[in-house]
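name: query_chain
kind: protein
chains: 1
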Amino acid sequence: MDFLSAAQTAALLPYPELAEAIERVLRDKAAGTVWAPERLVMPLPGGGTLLLMPAADAEITIVKQVTVHPGQQPSVRAEVYVLDTRTGERRLGLDGATVTARRTAAVSLLAAQKLAPNPEGPMLIVGAGTQGRGHLEAFRSGLGVKKVYVASRNLEHAQALVAQARSLGLEGEPAPSLEAVLGEVSLIVTATTSRTPVLPEGVREDAFIAAVGAFQPEMAEIPAGLVRRSRVFVDSLEGARAEAGDLIQAGVDWGRVRGLEGPRPQDGPVLFKSVGHALWDLAAARLAMRMLGS
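structure:
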């Protein structure tokens, strides 16, 4: 079994094709031909944590293995193993952090393609880490975004992401303030680990917001008033009910929350909340195998 590096894994997962692969998995999920149980979380002696996230179709089975050890460098390690469903043969190993970063941005890209009222941008990215970079690349390649503003508590990180945007041929600028650019941008990505809202409520009526940072009930990037004002979509209803702090803290009416299979809304703002799912890792593995000709 070959185990691929981060760079080799990324080369097999171009964003537009990965968004299409995720859409196919959504159709297969509706047809009942892909499967993914709840993730297993196991505390380890000494304070570490092991997470296992399997998924399968008739051809391949994947297992994402993640270990979290605070105080170690790196503190999080992850791999995705690809197996033959029928024989159990180990086929391929992928860098788990790269798979997670790219499939998360690709899910947001798919959501913007299906749901954004004005997908051309300009774009605002709040948070200049791995997910900020991934969403910049995904929205450029999949939507043709030409202008981006970057906001981050760390000015050096914001300037680095702006420089990357410019190297890709985009017009990039640090946001002087969020309020100063909200009237201009129609695409917004929040990708922070903040426990309190980072985005003001005054977004445009045609805004599309991809909120990908908050992943625990006590975390929220989006203010409750904006959540209640928006048309809300999620990548996983079961996951959002358990983990989407933005929605939980706003007391969202879950009867109004839709998955990505929902119809394009007639008005906005549109809020897409992503919490992740093993099926998106399966989609990435399918694409990687296809790119390798396997």
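note: The first strand starts at residue 2 and ends at 3.
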